[in-house]
Amino acid sequence: MSIQEWFEKRKEAQIERRSTEVKVENITFPGLWTKCVHCGAQITNKDLEANMMVCPQCDYHFRIGAKERIKQLFDKNSFIEMFSKIKPTDPLNFTDTEPYKERLKKAKEKTDLSEAVITGVGKICGHELAAAIMDFEFMGGSMGSVVGERVTKIMEEAIEKKIPMLSITSSGGARMQESALSLMQMAKTSCACAKMDEEKILYISLLTEPTFGGVTASFGTLGDIIIAEQGARIGFAGRRVIEQTIHQKLPSGFQTAEYLLKYGQIDIISKRKDLRNNLSRILELHNTTNSLEEDHK
């Protein structure tokens, strides 16, 4: 074997080895670990999922989607989705950096959802209730006309069936691509909340990371009982926008669930692992109270 042939053979072997190493790296490692955005800990996805998407090191609550919420909170196979046939359109033919229709299409493909909220009726520890569960992954959980319509209709369903109503919010606010049509949903959902109050329907609002803008300014904070998931950021405008407007530095922890509890804007802070039990206890107490009232009539 000549020196030239030896070098060529060695080069081929090195290329093959590198190719194998890259292949192993691409197959074996991605998708197995997640870095906590709060403490920087490296957590296996298996452990993170087993811990309900909560960091076992610092207790940071990762965002989760609407389908995962249903899985964690509702009795198995009890949740029946409603109003899913009401789907968004593009009434204004809106285009910014890309057409609104394209944004909707991409959001649907990304999340396998038709809108930023899932509505339906289910049971938590045997207690029946209506629910609207938002998903931040669908266009930032923004509230467009269909989100407002679905939320309103499920509230009307709660009134008709005389069962409690639960909303789980995760939103950046109104959907700019629908302009005033989106803003109108604040009044629409608020009126539905007022109607539930008149009919004495228990309304529980669960605020999760993050809840901002028009959702906070409407049905998100109109609950009879307002629960916030531990560490959730809740507000109207973002921290940076407020600081630029008032030219002042905001206090540490501003717009967190803990800050809002301190100043009486929410009633309960709950860890994710305790949410199902906390909701069950509230529903049980409500049902017991209703039974006592019926007995005294």
Determine Rg (CA atoms, Å).
24 Å
Largest sheet: 7 strands, mixed
Question: How far apart, in Å, are the first and last alpha carbons?
Answer: 104 Å
Structural class: alpha/beta
Tell how many strands the DSSP assignment holds: 9
- Shape assignment: globular
* Alpha plus pi helix count: 10
* Percent in strands: 15-25%
Helix content class: 40-55%
Q: Report the mean per-residue pLDDT as an integer.
A: 90
Q: Uncertain runs with pLDDT below 50, 5 residues or more?
A: 17-29
Helix-strand string: HEEHHEHEEHEHEHEHHEH
With strands numbered from the N-terminus, the spatial order across the biggest sheet is: 3-4-5-6-7-8-9
Distinctive features:
7-stranded mixed sheet; 297 residues; alpha/beta; two-stranded antiparallel ribbon
Describe the structure.
This protein has helices at 3-28, 45-50, 66-73, 100-111, 145-161, 179-198, 213-216, 239-246, 257-262, 272-295; strands at residues 33-35, 42-44, 80-82, 117-124, 127-134, 165-171, 203-211, 225-229, 268-270. The protein is α/β, with parallel strands linked by helices and 297 residues long. The model is unreliable at 17-29 (pLDDT under 50). It is globular. The strands form 2 sheets. It has a 7-stranded mixed β-sheet with strand order 3-4-5-6-7-8-9, with helices on both faces. A two-stranded antiparallel sheet has the order 1-2. It has 10 helices and 9 strands.
